[in-house]
């Protein structure tokens, strides 16, 4: 039996390797946290269904590899994105610099229909 949803959204998490993208997704989808980290190779995909006021919304969540050698593969996963979460490690200045200098521009280039929300 297929479920019906009043909304479906594709989210992609972007950022350098080892900044916590997979941990964020695992916490959101299973309410678990592990301090053992294994790098994502290519991508990982999962779903989360939220019910708010009797309205079911499905989120397709795409976890991408942050290593530079996988960046060309990520272009395939931008298609149809409704939102992006840019993740960096507050203890690693380079991971923040890459958000500003690379990942944000990727979103502007490949996902022009995403509204921009800035957190300062």
DSSP summary: helix tally: 3
Reading the helices and strands in chain order gives EHEEHEH
Uncertain residue segments:
none
The CATH architecture comes to 3-Layer(aba) Sandwich
In short:
The chain is 27% helix and 27% strand. It has three helices and four strands.
Question: What is the strand and helix layout of this fold?
Answer:
Layout: E1 7-14, H1 21-30, E2 43-52, E3 55-64, H2 71-74, E4 83-86, H3 93-110
Parallel strand pairs: 1-3, 1-4
Antiparallel strand pairs: 2-3
Q: How does this structure look, described?
A:
The chain is α/β, with parallel strands linked by helices. The protein has one domain (7-110): Rossmann fold. Helix content is 27%, strand content 27%. It is built from 3 helices and 4 strands; from the N terminus they run E-H-E-E-H-E-H. The protein has helices spanning 21-30, 71-74, 93-110; strands at 7-14, 43-52, 55-64, 83-86. A 4-stranded mixed β-sheet has the order 2-3-1-4, with helices on both faces. Strand 2 (43-52) and strand 3 form a beta hairpin.
């Amino acid at each position: 039996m297929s479920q019906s949803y009043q909304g479906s959204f594709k989210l992609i998490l972007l950022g350098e390797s080892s900044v916590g993208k997979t941990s964020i997704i695992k916490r959101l989808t299973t309410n678990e946290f592990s301090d053992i980290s294994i790098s994502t190779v290519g991508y990982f995909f999962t779903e989360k269904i939220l019910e708010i006021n009797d309205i079911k919304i499905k989120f397709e969540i795409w976890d991408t590899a942050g290593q530079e050698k996988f960046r060309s593969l990520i272009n395939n996963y931008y298609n149809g994105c409704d939102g992006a979460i840019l993740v960096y490690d507050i203890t690693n200045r380079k991971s923040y610099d890459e958000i500003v200098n690379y990942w944000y521009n990727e979103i502007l280039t490949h996902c022009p229909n995403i509204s921009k929300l800035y957190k300062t």
